[in-house]
Specification:
The complex is a heterodimer of chains A (274) and B (309). Chain A is built from 12 helices and no strands. Chain A has 274 residues and is mainly α. By secondary structure, chain B is mainly alpha-helical. In chain B, the strands form 2 sheets. Chain B has a two-stranded antiparallel sheet with strand order 1-2. In chain B, strands 3-4 form a two-stranded antiparallel sheet. Classes of the chains: A mainly alpha (274), B mainly alpha (309). At the A-B interface, α2, α4, α5, α6 and α7 of A face α1, α3, α4, α5 and α7 of B.
Chain lengths: 274, 309
C-alpha cells in the first residue's frame, strides 16, 4: 500500500505503453535513417561505411537513365496533379454544400473508387484496356501514364478541397450575390480565393501520390518509359550500390518538403475556422 | 392566391432542377476521367475472365468458365482427371496467412503507440502524430528497400547479431515469408496507428477513473472499459491493414523473391510468363470481391457503432 501511494498514479497510464511506443518509432525510422546515411558512403557498399562523400549523388545525377526517369516522373506528376486538381475542384464544388440529390452517392463512390480497389487490379485492368488501344491507334506515348495517374490522383486532390469547402462560410458568397455580382464574379473573387489553400493542398497531395506510384506505372508503361520508382524497382533485382540510396534520399527529401508545406497550408486553414 | 403559390412552387422546382443539373455538370469531367482511367477497364477484366487464353498473350473470343475453374482445380494433362490446384492453394493460403499475421502484429504494436500519442497533450501530440505520418507518406518502394537493406546477409541485423555473439553465420532472412511479414508490418503500421489514435482520442477518461474507483485493476479496466469503447478503431485499423496486405505486390516481390509469391504477384505472372490473361483476370475479380466484402463489413459495423460518436 505504502509503495503504491509513493508513485504518482494517473488514470491515463498503462504499463508497457511507453517502451513499446519508443521501440515502434525507433523501428520505423532506423531503416530510413540508415538508407540516408549510406547514400553518403564513399565506398561501394550499402553496409560497410568507408567515409563521407557525395560520390553517389554525382553518379546518379550523371546516369542518363536516372536523368530521363526523373524528367519523366516530374512531367507525369505535373500533368496528373494539374488535371486531377482541376477536375476534383469542379466535382467538389458540385458535391459539397448542397442537399443530397439524385446520384450524389454514386458520384461520391465513383470519385473515391481508386481508394477502394486494390492497385494491382486497376493496374491489370489498365494493362488490358490500353494494350488494345495501343494496337488500334498505334500511339504509345506518355499519354497513357498521364491518364492513369490523373485518374487515381482525383480522390487525393478531392478530399482536401472538399474539407476546405465544407468548413467555409456561406455568407460571404451570399453577400457578393446581394451586391449584384454575377455567379462567375462571385466564384472568381470570393469562392476561389477562399478555397485556394485547399486546392493547393490537394494538388500537392496528388503530386506526391503520382510521384510515388509503382504498380500502375509498372503495368501501363511501354518499353523505355521508366519513371524513378520503376527504375528503382528494376535496380533492386541486381546488386545494389549506394546510387539507389542517393535516389531514395532525394525523393524522400522532396516528399518531406511537400508534406511539410501541405501540413502548414491545411493547419493554417484550420486555425481560421471559428 | 392558389395561382401565386402554384407558380412559386414551379419556381422552386425549377431552381432545384437547375441546381441538380449544375452539380452533375460540374462532376461530369471527373466522372468521365475515372470511367476511362479506373472503373470502366474493370468491366473489361470481368469480360476477359470468361474468355480463352491466346497462344502467346491476350485472349481468344470464345466464352468459357475455364479461368474460374482453374483458380481452384487443375486438369491432369495425361489422364484428364480433375484435382485441386495445390500450387494455387499454397499461394492463397500464404496471402491470407501473411495478411492476417501482419494485421495482428501491427495491432499489437500499434495499439500502445496510438494510446501513447492520444494521451499526450497539445503540441507534443501534434509532434508524435507528424512523426507517424512521415513514414506513411514516404514512398512504399523506399520503405521496402530500407527493410531489404536491413535484412541482407551482410546487413545491419545480421551484423549486429554476429557482433553480439548470438549467431556465428548470417541468417538467411531475406527471400523468406518472414521477410515479407516483417516488411508488410513495417510498411502498414501507420495505417493501423492512425484510426486507433482517432478512437482513443475520443475516449472519456472519467470512465476509466470510475473503473479504478470501483476497485477494478488495470487489466479489468483495459478489458472492460477501454477495449469496448475503442473497438470501432480496432476494426477500422484492421481492415485498413488487411486489405492492402492481401493485394500487396511490391513488398512480396522485393522481399519474398520469386518463390514466395502472394496473390498480387501471381496475378502479374499470368500477364507475363504465365501467358494466361483470363486466369489473371478471374483472380483479379476474385481479389476485388474479397476486398469489397471486407469494406462492406466495415461500413456496416461502423454504421451500427455510430450512436457512440
Amino acid at each position: 500500500m505504502a509503495e503504491r501511494a509513493r508513485k504518482s498514479f494517473s488514470v491515463r497510464q498503462l504499463p508497457g505503453v511507453t517502451p513499446i511506443t519508443m521501440a515502434c518509432f525507433a523501428a520505423l525510422y532506423a531503416p530510413i535513417v540508415i538508407i540516408v546515411i549510406y547514400s553518403f558512403n564513399a565506398g561501394d557498399s550499402v553496409a560497410l561505411w568507408q567515409g563521407f562523400s557525395f560520390r553517389w549523388y554525382a553518379i546518379a545525377a550523371e546516369n542518363e537513365l536516372v536523368q530521363e526517369a526523373t524528367v519523366r516522373s516530374l512531367v507525369i506528376a505535373l500533368w496528373a496533379s494539374g488535371i486531377s486538381t482541376v477536375l476534383a475542384t469542379m466535382a467538389a464544388l458540385g458535391t459539397t454544400r448542397t442537399a443530397k440529390f439524385p446520384g450524389s452517392t454514386f458520384i461520391y463512390v465513383m470519385i473515391n473508387q481508386p481508394l477502394m480497389v486494390p492497385e494491382i487490379v486497376t493496374a491489370v485492368a489498365l494493362l488490358i484496356f490500353f494494350a488494345s488501344i495501343k494496337v488500334a491507334t498505334g500511339y504509345s506515348g506518355l499519354g497513357y501514364l498521364i491518364l492513369a495517374h490523373s485518374a487515381f490522383c482525383v480522390p487525393f486532390a478531392y478530399l482536401p478541397i472538399r474539407a476546405r469547402l465544407e468548413g467555409m462560410d456561406r455568407t460571404l458568397e451570399i453577400a457578393a450575390a446581394d451586391l449584384y455580382a454575377t455567379p462567375w464574379q462571385t466564384f472568381r473573387r470570393v469562392t476561389l480565393p477562399l478555397v485556394l489553400p485547399g486546392i493547393v493542398a490537394g494538388a500537392m497531395l496528388a503530386f506526391v501520390i503520382s510521384l510515388d506510384d509503382v504498380i500502375i506505372t509498372e503495368f501501363v508503361k511501354s518499353a523505355g518509359q521508366d519513371t524513378l520508382p520503376t527504375y528503382m524497382l528494376g535496380q533492386l533485382r541486381r546488386a545494389v550500390t549506394p546510387e539507389v540510396n542517393a535516389i531514395s534520399t532525394a525523393l524522400l527529401g522532396l516528399t518531406i518538403l511537400l508534406l511539410t508545406a501541405f501540413f502548414l497550408l491545411t493547419g493554417r486553414g484550420n486555425d481560421k475556422k471559428p | 392566391m392558389s395561382e401565386a403559390s402554384g407558380s412559386l412552387r414551379t419556381l422552386e422546382a425549377d431552381a432545384a432542377a437547375r441546381r441538380i443539373r449544375r452539380n452533375w455538370l460540374l462532376s461530369l469531367p471527373a466522372l468521365a476521367l475515372l470511367l476511362v482511367g479506373a472503373s470502366g477497364p474493370l468491366l473489361i477484366v470481368l469480360v476477359y475472365s470468361f474468355l480463352k487464353p491466346g497462344d502467346f498473350s491476350g485472349v481468344i473470343w470464345e466464352p468459357t468458365f475455364n479461368a474460374w475453374f482453374q483458380i481452384l482445380f487443375s486438369r491432369d494433362i495425361f489422364d484428364d482427371t480433375i484435382g485441386l490446384a495445390d500450387a494455387h492453394l499454397t499461394i492463397f493460403w500464404r496471402s491470407v496467412r501473411l495478411s492476417l499475421s501482419t494485421t495482428l502484429i501491427t495491432l499489437l504494436l500499434g495499439l500502445p503507440t496510438a494510446y501513447f500519442i492520444a494521451t499526450r497533450s497539445g503540441r507534443q501530440r501534434m509532434f508524435w502524430l507528424f512523426l507517424i505520418t512521415i513514414p506513411f507518406w514516404t514512398n512504399l518502394l523506399i520503405r521496402t528497400f530500407a527493410i531489404l537493406e536491413m535484412l541482407r546477409n551482410e546487413g545491419i541485423v545480421n551484423n549486429a547479431l554476429i557482433d553480439l555473439g548470438v549467431i556465428t553465420e548470417p541468417l538467411q532472412i531475406l527471400y523468406t515469408d518472414t521477410a515479407v511479414l516483417i516488411g508488410m508490418s513495417y510498411v502498414y503500421l501507420p495505417l493501423m496507428v492512425l484510426p486507433l489514435y482517432a478512437a482513443i482520442e475520443r475516449l472519456d477518461f472519467r470512465l476509466v477513473e470510475a473503473g479504478y474507483d470501483l476497485y477494478a485493476n488495470r487489466v479489468q479496466v483495459f478489458r472492460r472499459i477501454i477495449l469496448p469503447i475503442i473497438k470501432p478503431g480496432i476494426v477500422a485499423g484492421s481492415i485498413l491493414v488487411f486489405v492492402p496486405s492481401l493485394g500487396a505486390y511490391v513488398t512480396p516481390r522485393v522481399l519474398g523473391g520469386g518463390k514466395n509469391m502472394m496473390i498480387g504477384n501471381f496475378i502479374e505472372l499470368q500477364f507475363g510468363q504465365g501467358r494466361n490473361w483470363p486466369l489473371g483476370a478471374s483472380l483479379s475479380i476474385l481479389l476485388l470481391f474479397i476486398v469489397m466484402a471486407a469494406l462492406l463489413l466495415y461500413v456496416r459495423a461502423s454504421s451500427r457503432e455510430e450512436p457512440h460518436g
